[in-house]
Specification:
The protein is an alpha/beta fold and about 325 residues long. The protein is built from nine helices and eleven strands. α3 packs parallel to α5 and α4 crosses α5.
Length: about 325
């Protein structure tokens, strides 16, 4: 089985551009969103498992600064709900694209039509390494820096998607954003950039799904539009998935950053209905889900390992 993944990446891409190995961990100039590469990848997903996420078979229809007209037409006129995915820490370009394909198939597996989506991935320049000598924190800090620097590129990507997502909703379809781990660090930078550049409110997504967010725990406190505080102005509802059992956040990320992360216990004051109106925010405690083999790494991947968490995600997609 082959899964189609539309994508954008602000990685520097060397020749040949149809080779996944050409997509580096270097970042294009922050002031040049026109250098962001857009394209379509085809991923072999037969025999898909949580630990074997497939392989990129081909990369086609490449363009700079925006999707090709063919991709725009395909996305605007398609009959499926749309899922936009932003990957986390330690994901190479092949990792990011195959993970997007996995997520699409994982969510579609129960056979519920609303979760049978068209997937679009944004891949920021992670090194794809968990620990890189000489310092254990080097690869983490590299990824955190490039994720933060990706804000203007991710903002431009969302602006390019806006007419596509609007066209989909006019046809009765729903649109979702799924940001995992450090992808939320890139997302907060993009949300800040969106409003700092004078863009107004826009209903880009019906649901923004923040899974195991490696972002500051008080991200929603930076009003009026700092960090993730204005995400609700771009999405009708925001769901925060968190887990006290997430060892990657509690052992690695909190130690390096010296502060609690959003994906550990949700945001500050999460039970305050005035601060977090239930119609706009959902807080989902995933700490008790152990319906998959749990170890250091998998404890951070519950959104794609736990069938119970998947059931919640699919429920959100059905509305």
């Amino acid at each position: 089985m082959t899964t189609t993944v539309y994508f954008a990446t602000n990685r520097v891409v060397n020749a040949p551009t149809d080779n996944p190995a050409s997509y580096t961990f270097n970042i294009v100039a922050p002031t040049k969103p026109q250098e962001v590469t857009y394209g379509t990848a085809f991923v072999e997903t037969a025999g898909l498992t949580a630990d074997t996420v497939g392989a990129i078979r081909s990369i086609q229809d490449l363009s700079k600064g925006g999707f090709s007209q063919q991709a725009k037409d395909d996305l605007s006129k398609g009959g499926r709900n749309i899922l936009v995915f932003i990957h986390g820490f330690a994901n190479s370009f092949p990792d990011a694209i195959t993970r997007a394909a996995f997520n699409r198939e994982w969510l579609a597996a129960p056979g519920i039509g609303a979760a049978n989506t068209t997937v679009i991935a944004f891949s920021w320049p992670s090194r794809g390494e968990v620990i890189l000598p000489p310092f254990p924190s080097f690869s983490y800090r590299w990824d955190q820096t490039t994720a933060g620097q990706s804000g203007p590129h991710l903002m431009a990507f969302l602006a390019n998607l806006e007419p596509i997502l609007t066209a989909a909703r006019k046809r009765g379809l729903r649109t979702f954003l799924l940001a995992h781990s450090m992808g939320n660090w890139a997302l907060q930078s993009a949300v800040e950039s969106w409003f700092a550049h004078g863009n107004g409110d826009a209903t880009l997504f019906d649901e923004a799904l923040l899974a195991a967010a490696d972002e500051v725990h008080n991200s929603f406190d930076y009003v009026p539009f700092g960090r993730l505080s204005a995400l609700s102005r771009l999405a009708r509802r925001v769901s925060v998935y968190y887990s006290h059992a997430d060892k990657v956040l509690s052992i690695l990320s909190e130690t390096i950053n010296g502060s609690r992360r959003l994906g550990q216990d949700g945001p500050d004051d999460r039970a305050n209905a005035t601060h977090f109106p239930p119609a706009t925010y959902r807080m989902v405690d995933c700490s008790g889900f152990n319906d998959y083999p749990v170890d250091f790494q998998s404890s951070h991947q519950y959104y794609r390992r736990s069938k119970n968490v998947r059931q919640d995600l699919v429920g959100v997609m059905t509305g």
